[in-house]
Amino acid sequence: VQLQASGGGLVQAGGSLRLSCAASGSTFSINAMGWYRQAPGKERDLVATITSSGITVYADSVKGRFTISRGNAKNTVFLQMNSLKPEDTAVYYCKSRDIWLQDYWGQGTQVTVSS
Question: How far is residue 105 from each of residues 28, 82, 94, 95, measured CA to CA in Å?
C-alpha cells in the first residue's frame, strides 16, 4: 500500500484546511485509515482515525473542530480542519492499517497556523 497525502499549507488562526490521502496498491486489504501529526521536538500523535465501517476516533484536542471521512472508494481519507489554532502546526501524516494489522505511512504534509 502506498499513501499520498496532500492539502497542507499556511493558514491564519481560525481558518480551515482540508487534507487528503489517497491509497494505491493492495487497497482491498485496508481496514482503518487515519491522520497523525508531529510538531517539532515532539512525538507523533494521533489526530483521528476511521475504520472501514465508519467508526471514528479523535484526539481530545481536535474534537469538534476536525472531521475525518473516507471517500466512496474507501481508498481515500480526508481531514477537514476548522477553527485552526497555532498549536495545530505540525507535519501531518496519513496512515493505513490493513486486515493483517500492518501499518503503512504516507509522506507528511506541513500544516502551519499563524497567530
Answer: 16, 24, 6, 5
Give the H or E element holding residue 13.
none
DSSP string, 21-47: EEEESSGGGEEEEEEEEE-TTS-EEEE
Given a contact cutoff of 8 angstroms between Cβ atoms, the answer to whether 87 and 26 are in contact is no
Q: Which residue is associated with the grid cell 493505513? A: 96
pLDDT by 10-residue block (mean), the chain, 115 residues: 95 98 89 96 97 95 97 89 98 95 95 97
Using CB atoms within 10 Å of the CB of residue 14, give its burial: 0 to 12 exposed, 13 to 18 middle, 19+ buried: exposed
Q: Which three cell numbers stand for residue 3?
A: 499513501
